[in-house]
Amino acid sequence: MDLDALAGCLSSSACLVTQTTSGLIIGMLLFLVAVGLTLIFGVLKVVNFSHGAFYMFGAYFAMTAYQLTGSFALAMFAGAAGTAVLGLIFERVFMSRVYGADVLMQLLVCYAFVLIFDDVVRIIWGPEFKSMGMPAAFQVMPLFIAGGVVPPYYLLLIGVALVAAIVLGIGLSRSRIGKVIRAAAHNPGMVSALGINTGLIYGGVFALGGMLAGLAGALAAPVRSLTPGMGFSVLIESFIVTVIGGMGSILGALIGALLLGLIRSFGSLGFPLFTEGLMYLFMVIVLVSKPTGLFGKEAA
Amino acid sequence: MTRTRMPGISRRSTLALMGAGAMSVAAPWVARAQAKTIKIGMPTILSGRVAQLGTSSRNAVMLEVDKVNAAGGLAGRQIEMVIRDSKGQPQEAARVARELVNTDGCEWLIDGEASSGSFAVHEVARDLGVLCVHTCSEASSLTADPKQHIPNAFRCVRQGIHDSIVGGSYAAGIAKAKGLKKWATCSPDYAYGRDTTGEFTLYLKRFAPDVEIISESWPKLFQPDYTEVVTKILQAKPQALYSCLWGGDLTSYIDQANIYAMFGQMEVFAVNMADYTALTVVKNLPKGIHSGNRYIKTFPTTPENAAWGDAYKAKYNEYPTNWSWQNATAVMFLAEAAKKANSTDGKKIAEVLKGLTIKCPFGADGTVTMRGDDHTLVGYAIGWGTTIPQEPYVPEVKAGDWKTIFELEAEWKKSKGYT
Predict the structure, then answer these.
(1) Domain boundaries of chain B, sorted by first residue
(2) Which CATH class is domain B161-300+382-416?
(3) What domains does chain A contain, in order, with CATH numbers?
(4) Residues of chain A contacting B252 with CB distance shorter than 8 Å
(5) pLDDT category, B31, cuts 50, 70, 90?
(6) Per-residue pLDDT tens for B116-163?
(7) B321 and chain A: CB distance < 8 Å anywhere?
(8) Contacts of A184 (CB under 8 A, 6+ apart)
(9) Is B411 on the interface with A (CB under 8 A)?
């Protein structure tokens, strides 16, 4: 425990800026993965244990597109669009068959695909770790804001995640399709009786969830090494985020991810040997005081 | 009347066959001794995050085994390698090792496991009495600790303590020349990371007593994001940083530290940087990272080493790793020992291996020795240098002095109660 370091940081604007942006970066990437997870659970009532694989595929698709075209924008598009298509196929062909099944069966199918997807990546891209590399446009000196260090690439990353959060929030609450999705989550039988194709909605939601995780993977690809199985560690933290924020709540995922990012960022200064433990401790405190999570709704 | 023998196996032959079968079951080594080929078992990591190193171990072994077989084999017996995946799990490594000997009939073991698995395979070798050569574990205690000593096990691997002595001495020289007094460390939070960092700083402070460690970071193994670690180090404002992160963790760390322009703000010493697995993967490798040599075909700067690196690349379309040269050296040792003993008997080979010196492309002076008293490899090329972003990646490596290594290693063993 190094509380002096933590107190020193909190009283220094340079340190505050650096550590806060560091927390935001960690949090925003986590949010993109976790929001897909929570969206799928909210609408389909399925805990998608294979969600980390979409993050992994997003990173690999982006790396391949970047190697082929040299375009960062196309790499991001490939990461997001590729995983959306993959998500749609996965849902229509496999997951749609186990919606009514036991939770254990759903978990088993998802876990089987965690292993299958890892092996597919190993076969296509090889077992060794890979690096996409930072695009030349972002290989610049970091910005110094109030004495704190902020890399321009991370500003882009935070911006993209924020836009995704806003579009998703507004889209679900204000648009017609958003209302249909929410209705399908609440009462799929009634939605279906009104002539709306619920299968299409489920497939679309799964594709959207996969796309968001893929976008997170694509955004992470320039700064994280790519390996088969890389989605697993992100998945665990995403589960913590959704549990803290409340399963099915998009706002909860955002707040939970940001809180987790800040805990990691400032915790590494004050509690360097207990940073991981702090995350779990926070989760326990939230669950004890509010078992449905910060923004979760009580079961009717 | 002529008695005609019925076709098929006679009663006498049947009895002879049954007798031979019973002998084989009761004394399997008799059957093995008569086999034309010698089976060598090798548990290693062929799946998971470390699969690349296990695969490179298998490749190097096969490269050398093909040469030995082409030259007539071991004392006239062709080698048949039986290589199995342990998935990097110690209990699986032990199970596989035992199965290789008991079920597959392997007479020797080449243990291509990381440290955790190696200790498990070591116990199997102790139990079965089979000749075993460890080829990947750098944990010093595997051979330094007399409690681990068994007559049939050898280690053909660089050692953590050797690297720390050479690294500490090299880093101290730079610290004194550049006035680097404030240091930070960032290493993975498990036995290898903790031990290696502790030993490095021990010798750094010994050679440069003014050095002070002002910040320590222990990210967990295979952590995907190092942002908070990078920013923590930037806050501490050290003049130099030591890290023994490796593989994908090291490349992630470099990519993430790069965008904070960290490498311009301090001298970085990363012992595992100069390995092709990392050097060829990092797209924006900063110039001037100090690193220990792992495997690099330009050190030692001999035609033999360069030729070996090129031959490996020609066959497998990638450069060898640190684990590759160690595994290749193990096969070289076994081949030379079999030649000297003119036998493949494990006990005779073990006797010859003790203190054996062989010509080797990876030797500091063109030779390496299997030290007799602790059954461990010495005399291999060891040194530190600075990186550049393109081949040869580490243009100049300052070689470590084996005389100093031996002196300080002896002191270290005494301090640990090993001697």
Answers:
(1) 161-300+382-416
(2) alpha beta
(3) 3-126+143-289 (1.10.3470)
(4) 131, 223-225
(5) very low
(6) 899 999 999 999 999 999 999 998 889 999 999 999 999 999 998 999
(7) no
(8) A43, A191, A196, A198, A201, A202
(9) no
